[in-house]
Automatic annotation (TrEMBL):
Name of the protein this chain belongs to: DUF4276 family protein
Domain of life from the UniProt record: Bacteria
Length: 192
């Protein structure tokens, strides 16, 4: 098995990477997910990836724990292109995954899980075109379920409980950032 480590922007991404669904996908692809997902609570946010010394320190910790490949996952948010977001990550020895617009875009791309969550057929043609995907999900939840969503992390847990997987999001024809991530992971199992 190839050991992979992760540096992520926020607690939602950490929850997804630490989930059983994601670990099972990785296991099927001969990948072991490192137990430590950085940065630790309180040191989050995309700005941390602009600090080359901090990023290098996390990379070194992961390498000391036997990690062979490192992924950094951050949201595109308000930047106008993926290249700018990649350039803000001050590390060359990692796989840079830019989620367009935010990680909740991947929730919207997982039609099966949102259909279960909403209790009715749900799909969106272009989940990565939604400027504020969490706000979109809050609005849809109020419209369809007559209940709001107040917290991103709690909602991530609900999505995982209902079966969310990045693999499902990657199957969406218009969610290329999830597809890129899954393809990069699967390519690791082919080279080891």
């Amino acid at each position: 098995m190839v050991k992979v480590g992760f540096l992520v922007e926020g607690d939602t991404e950490k929850k997804i990477i630490a989930s059983d669904n994601f670990k099972e996908f990785c296991h099927r692809n001969n990948i072991e997910v490192a137990a430590d997902i950085f940065p630790p609570k309180g040191g989050r946010g995309k700005d941390i990836f602009q600090d080359a010394e901090k990023v290098k320190a996390y990379i070194n910790i992961l390498k000391d724990k036997g990690v062979e490949h490192i992924f950094i996952i951050r949201d595109l948010e308000d930047l106008d292109c993926v290249i700018k977001a990649r350039d803000e990550i001050k590390a060359d020895e990692v796989v840079k995954v830019i989620v367009v617009k935010a990680i909740e875009s991947w929730f919207i791309a997982d039609n099966d899980t949102l259909t279960t969550y909403f209790g009715q057929n749900f799909s969106h043609d272009s989940p990565e075109s939604i400027d504020k995907p969490f706000q979109f999900l809050k609005t849809k939840s109020l419209e369809i379920r007559k209940r709001g969503i107040s917290d991103k992390l709690i909602f991530a847990g609900i999505m995982l409980k209902y079966g969310f997987s990045i693999e499902n999001a990657a199957k969406h024809p218009n969610c290329p950032s999830a597809k890129y991530f899954i393809n990069k992971l699967q390519s690791l199992s082919k080279i080891h």
